[in-house]
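Project standup — Tuesday

K.O.: blocked on the structure for the chain from last sprint. Re-posting the sequence here as requested.
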Amino acid sequence: MENIRLEYRGETAVLTVDRPKALNALNSATLREMEEALSLLEEQKDLRTVIVTGGGEKSFVAGADISEMVNASAPEGREMALLAKRCFERLEQMPVVTIAAVNGYALGGGCELAMACDIRVAAENAIFGQPECGLGILPGFGGTQRLARLVGKGLAKELIFTCRRIDAQEACRIGLVNQVVPQTELLESCLAMAEEIGRSAPLGVAYAKQAINAGLDIDLDSGLQMEANLFGLAFATQDKHEGMTAFLEKRKEKHFSGQ
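H.V.: unblocked you, prediction finished:
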């Protein structure tokens, strides 16, 4: 892979969009490589978390690659949006937890990539925005859908219609970002969070992620029924037995098996 780099830190994988000369802009080749990388990650049985970040210190992902899109036809534009949809949905639906380590510009497709992750941690220099309407198009990699779910419909419309950029602190205030840290501490902060998540039961986390994600798209009663079903499934796991037994015996649980 030329534009995507994978490295492993124990039970955590770091997926880096590595096109720093293009500010890590997403073109079709990069999206296809990201799909390939996600396939590799899905094969890792001991994986607990994935951190997504950008190469260099200036940009997370500065958007989709305008040089590829400028002469694209309507069918080609739609195909690129569907490629991103497939890729980002795959990231969003992974049973392991995904953390966006936003180390700079997260504009357009970059903001959309971050929103497809479970948790977003931003460096102090991070900048977020959806500038597509200023380019004669609209967000096409999930921005019109995920942004409204994160910050509310009215604010999402304002940010998309005005193309306004916001800094990391404002992004945190409106709920787009979970926390803001100094740039020099960004990756270590995400790794520390990944380690903390890794102390929880893998299936418990996976079921909880499934319930939260699916619950946003259904009515409350259906969501509660789904939660009860998953709660029941968790009772059949070895992790439940170990976690509760350790609690009653007042000891630290052994490493959860994910079974």
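K.O.: great, moving the ticket to review. The first helix runs from residue 28 to 42. The chain has a mean pLDDT of 95.
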